[in-house]
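sorry for the late reply, my laptop died twice this morning and i had to redo everyting from scratch. anyway the thing you sent over, i finally got around to it. pasting the sequence first so we're on the same page, its 377 residues, then the predicted structure underneath. double check i copied it right bc i was rushing
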Amino acid sequence: MSRVLLLGGTGVIGRYLPPFLEQDGHQVFVTSRQPRDHVGTVRFVHGNAQDLGFLRDCVRQIRPDAIVDFMIYGTEAFHDRVEWLLGASAHYLFFSSFAVHAYFDRARSVPLREDSPRLLEACVGRDEAFLRTDAYPLAKARQEDALRAAGERHPDQVWTIIRPSIAFDRTRFQLADYPRGTLLWRAATNRPIALPERMAQCRTTMTFGQDVARLVAKLVLNPKAYGEAFLAATGESLAWREIGEVFHQTLGTSFATCSEEDYIRCCGDERWIRYSQMNDRVVDNRKILAATGLAQSGFVPLRECLARELSAARGAGCPQGGALAQGARVDALLGLPMPGGLSLRERMDYQMARHPKLARSLSVRGIRWLLRQVGGR
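ok and here's the structure:
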């Protein structure tokens, strides 16, 4: 029986992977930063897979035949360990993202295929400032390149690159750049979210985490996957407006139209939004279907699956941290008052996010004003 080690395999895709691997005759081990009880024959190993010392001990004890790596690395950290990761098992599967692909040339980018242009190359001469960062889509592309280079230096060691689309289940989902916490809270308090009209018309690919796991399981120790990159996704896409209709029908989420500039102020990273969410992201998944022997008909229809997972997620409380701050910025954009039911700390966080200039230069007078606001006066 072959042994498969999942690094950080407790997220929206990893949690569904062990049963599929077991069906194919693999014994499964999963690293987790939180202590977890074993589930059936699945063994959880408590520790942080970012810690190379822990990881070396883990590999020495388990002696895996394959490693599926869900971890998120900085590019420098990945360079420091890529050769070790590649040599730690007979098959190393690296999770990248379909976010690595570029969207400047629509004719070449729709639908997305494994050889579609990447932002890392497409930004050369177009956005040099962005290239000087280690933003997520650039970092993943650079790490893909580092893995390929290591594979060339060690041709006897086998790798696969996996680029999932947006993956969701009841514990994690999004609508454009609004995460689960923001969406549930605004639906529960009858507060709309704001979307630019152009974004609402853009098509995107969202795949149920369990369906991604079903595909990934068939790549493990599969010779057709060796030295290849795969888009791991459904072939079905919907416009954000259509996805929003599912949210409305299931959660009661309502929508308001806003300008692109206002949306960017509410949701953050302008380049991520313009290069990613404000473009069509339709996936051609024929390569991974051919390698795995699976069929598009085996995927749960997107509308049906999304409605089911949203229904199961109803009733969440007030979002924390970034989601609460994002909600405050949307309220400011739409001219809505601060909601009731927030704790003192939540009211402070809300007001500081809603009034960023004040937050950057709080004077004594500003603090007094803020305290009056959070006190409801």
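The chain has a mean pLDDT of 90.
thats about all i looked at so far, will dig more tmrw
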